[in-house]
Amino acid sequence: MAGDNGKQVSTARETMDTLLEISNLLNTGLDAETLAICVSLCESGVNPEALATVIQELRRESAALKETDSSGGQSKQS
Amino acid sequence: MKMARWVKVEKETGKLINAIAGFEQGEENYDLCLQFALSNFKYHRFLAVDSHKVSRALKGIHEKLRIHSNHVEAEKFNSLTDSFLTSPVFEGKTEGKTDTHYALLSLLLTLADAPTRSTYEEGQKEEVQEEVEVFDWGAYLMEGLEPDGPYPESPVWSEDEEEEEDRQPHVGQREAVVALDDSGITVEEDPSRSTLAIVDTGQSWLTRNVVVQYWRGGSDHSVHSFQYSASLSREMEIHLRSSNLFYNDRGSTLVTETQAIRETLWLLSGVPESYIFTLDRDGKFAVRDGLKFSHLTQESLLTFLRRTATYGNIVYQLQQFVEAVLMNSYHDNSAAAVSQTHQAYATTTATYLQNLKKQMTILEKQAMAQEETMTLLTLTHDLRPRFHELEVLHRVHQEGIVNCRGSHSEQASHLLSTLYDTICEYDSTGEDGVLTVSLLLPLWIQTAKPYIDIIDGWITHGNLTDPVKEFIIQRNDNVKALDEKFWETAFSLHCSPTVEGSSSSEDITPGFTSNQEGTTQSDEQTYRKSSWAPTFLRPVLNHVIFAGKSMEMFQNLGRLLDVVEGGQGSHPKPLYDTFVENLRDFLVHQDVPSKPMEQSPQNHNTLYITAHVSQQMLVKGTNDPLLRVNFAGIFRLTAGDVVETDMEQYNFSDMLEGETLQPIQVVLRHCLYPHITQKYNRVCTKLLDTLKTDYKMLHYMETMRKFFLMEAGDTMYDFYREIFVKLQLKEQWQDMSFLNVALHDTLQAHFPQEADKLFVSVQSTGEKGRDRHPIQALEGLTLHYKVPWPVDVVINTKCQEIYNKIFQFLLQIKRAKFCLDRLKFDDLEKSDPLAESNEEEERAEKTMPYNLIHRVQIFRLRLMHFVNSLHQYIMTRILHSTGLEFQNEVELATDLDQVIYIHNNYVSKIHERCLLHKRVAMIKETVTRVLNIAVGFQEKWNAGIDNISEKYLKHVEDEFKNCVKFLTSFLNNVIKRGSFPHLESLAFSLSTSLEQQQTR
């Protein structure tokens, strides 16, 4: 059982590596941690396109927020 | 279940917000984001994931990468997606391609909606670096699922890392890093770099691992050492700064010794563009200013590199030459056509350069491997033999090619001569020159190949194939076949025109008494002629020329097939191949006798048995197969010691034979000359045979003697008697038809077959004829003999002219003799027919001056004695005996040229001995006067004694006496000097007549 478990883990890790590499190849800008979260979300049945929209929106907003922060403005919420 | 899942989604979404936007739980923004995200997840309008769509999109990406020529990435992408889809990790299933798989891929594809070319490539590189980051995926993924602790380090990870590192050096790398030097300099890792490594990018990796771009002005500041020897340059600079206030360090570039070594190797491989060595406008390499080693001062480095640069110049020059020859040959530019000899030379030079480059490449690989110590000093030391070779080649090239301007033949000859002379020169230096000889000998042999081929084609097949006129001998196109001057003028040597045509009769000076002398003279002339011929060919040039001309004769006779070796079908072995084979056999064979020589104790040549040779002799047996193999490789310039050993050994046997120490010449004498001589003998002998048998050359020569030199006395007597009688009767004799009829009548009687070939003409003697002696009346009479073509090369018009002169002189003697012989005593004593009366007769008888008659008769006899002596001398002593000598010589002659020479010599000899040469013009004049007296005397005689006054008699007697006296004293003087031995008999007979006169 333990062996199976170990094997499963290593397979999972390999798969994650592969996925990360694909992600890098496609220039998605996701790091390993975010990717792992995305995997987990997708597993939970979240629509990937909706997830993608959310990620893009979050990125855009946080970038805008950082910009306003650096220029001394107030924080802005979406 | 659904709730539980939703809770998990919420939790993950929170993490996601934290990861992307960085908001913490409890912040206002966090909540807003969470709300936004969850509402999006719940109430979206997207369709469920379509695996086909995703597959198509993946395919599309793959295609796109390929279109952008990112084949590597495309393949990688393909394999990654494949392996991802097949991995059974999601939804608790044991196989891949679940919805989650496609969902994830769809997510990535959506996020990577516009993977443009530029961002893509960069991203790919970053990916390589970013993977280094450590992230415990296992723990992360299994979090919450399995309570087990941390997983051990997977070996897969570290392997991957290694692989990456192995692969990295190949990415855009120009050359391997040169990290360590033998000079004691250690290249230490820059601390700033190691910190940089954390945020590593491809660029930084490259700058760290690729050699410093010193050619762009960059210098590696990491190269430093605390050893004094390695920081000499710096110390020197500090010293200079401190001692000289105005010291100005012009910007200098620090290069490492390895860099310098590699550039040196490139230089010697003929690379024109390098940093350290710059090529100036004259095509010479100069060393760039401002270079420095850490362990050498600039000056010493410059001096060192400059020396190497000279050899780079040589390589470059040779390379330029080879390229120029190749370009010219390729473009087939007839104006700047390159002779075959030059082409062959360029080929061998190219082979040499190729070998040199190979060696340089091997050295460079060694330098790159950095497994053994290599410094500039050791490099130059190792390359010293090469440098010497380059020097020799440069010398030869300079003398043989660069300094020679002129026609192709001059250039080719000069090149071959230079090579040959250089070989001889080094050969004579003995042991020292051995290496050089082994370098130059194959070079020379190969360069000589076209030349030898031309000779071969000419003397074996009769074709002088010489497209760019590089051969020393050229065919004169304006000389047609069937020309009597064919032999002399059909081919010309490329030399000053003054020495051409030596075989013509004009150049043959009198005084040749034997063939031996003649040959010497001829050799000298040939030597002069051949001053432009390649040195190696000079000893056999004559043979080559004669054999070639003979072949040409055969061709013109239409009988080339008779003489081409092996008949029509087979092809004889090329001369060059025979030469090379013989050379090999000869050199191998020479191995054998050298052994006992070494062993003989009283060998006085011990000096020549050097350690090198004796070692070779001990090591190598007589039948060493390696020796043969090596020698076979001589033409690939690979022969090393073997050839020179053979040369050396040859020295021995040669020395012991008491000959001069000139091995190359002796080698040639054994290997090349015999073949040429053999061909020469065969062709020339065959030609002579053909001329003698099929074209009756000897017969024509005999005919010339018969008629022109009156050997056929009876025939000619019949002919000239008629003319003499007419002359005596003072009739018109110059009538051509009469003369020809007379001649033909006599010929029909004796030699009917010659009747149509011989005819006679009278040339007008012009105004001069008036005050000439009556004896010279016949001077315009000329015989013509039609000699057919191949023979008229020998018996040409010029010879016929001389024959005619002799003929005319003989006619004069014959006439005088004829006149004197036909005198009758009755005619002298008969009385004047006008005073015919008995009284007067009686009175006449009384007054008949018996005394005078007696004197006249005696004078007649003396004249007869003189004329007979002269006649005898000319006809027997001169013409006959010289003729016999001539016949013997012709029998012994080996080639046509000799026959021509002998014949010309013969003709000029009899011309001279018949007193017709300018030098003996005085004697001729005197003799003519005597002959003239004879003719005049005959007239008086026939007129009767009454018409001969005492005064006249006294006059002619005195004249005759003077003439004879003069002749006698002159001839005696000449005989005393011994210069004209053939005149002895004449002098003797004349002196006897004089003595009689004196004693009287």
UniProtKB/TrEMBL annotation, chain A:
Q: What is this protein called?
A: Mitotic-spindle organizing protein 1
Is the keyword Cytoplasm in the record? yes
Q: Which organism is it from?
A: Lingula anatina
Q: Where in the cell is it found?
A: Cytoplasm, Cytoskeleton, Microtubule organizing center
Q: Name one GO biological process term.
A: gamma-tubulin complex localization
Q: Which gene encodes it?
A: LOC106173858
Protein family membership: Belongs to the MOZART1 family.
Principal localization reads cytoplasm
Keywords, alphabetical: Cytoplasm, Cytoskeleton
Automatic annotation (TrEMBL), chain B:
Residues annotated as region Disordered?
A: 148-171, 497-527
Q: Indicate where this protein is primarily found.
A: cytoplasm
Q: Where is the Gamma tubulin complex component C-terminal domain?
A: 701-991
Biological process, per Gene Ontology:
cytoplasmic microtubule organization; meiotic cell cycle; microtubule nucleation; mitotic cell cycle; spindle assembly
Presence of the UniProt keyword Transcription regulation in the record: no
Indicate the quaternary assembly. Component of the gamma-tubulin ring complex (gTuRC) consisting of TUBGCP2, TUBGCP3, TUBGCP4, TUBGCP5 and TUBGCP6 and gamma-tubulin TUBG1 or TUBG2. TUBGCP2, TUBGCP3, TUBGCP4, TUBGCP5 and TUBGCP6 assemble in a 5:5:2:1:1 stoichiometry; each is associated with a gamma-tubulin, thereby arranging 14 gamma-tubulins in a helical manner. Gamma-tubulin at the first position is blocked by TUBGCP3 at the last position, allowing 13 protafilaments to grow into a microtubule.
List the Gene Ontology MF annotations in alphabetical order: gamma-tubulin binding; microtubule minus-end binding
State the UniProt keywords alphabetically. Cytoplasm, Cytoskeleton, Microtubule
Q: Which organism is it from?
A: Lingula anatina
The highest taxon in the source lineage is Eukaryota
What protein does this entry describe?
Answer: Gamma-tubulin complex component
Where would you find this protein in the cell? Cytoplasm, Cytoskeleton, Microtubule organizing center, Centrosome
Tagged with keyword Cytoplasm: yes
Similarity remark: Belongs to the TUBGCP family.
Q: Polar residues composition bias: which ranges?
A: 499-527
Task performed by this protein: Component of the gamma-tubulin ring complex (gTuRC) which mediates microtubule nucleation. The gTuRC regulates the minus-end nucleation of alpha-beta tubulin heterodimers that grow into microtubule protafilaments, a critical step in centrosome duplication and spindle formation.
Q: Which residues form the Gamma tubulin complex component protein N-terminal domain?
A: 261-580
Query: What is one cellular component GO term in this UniProt entry?
Result: spindle pole
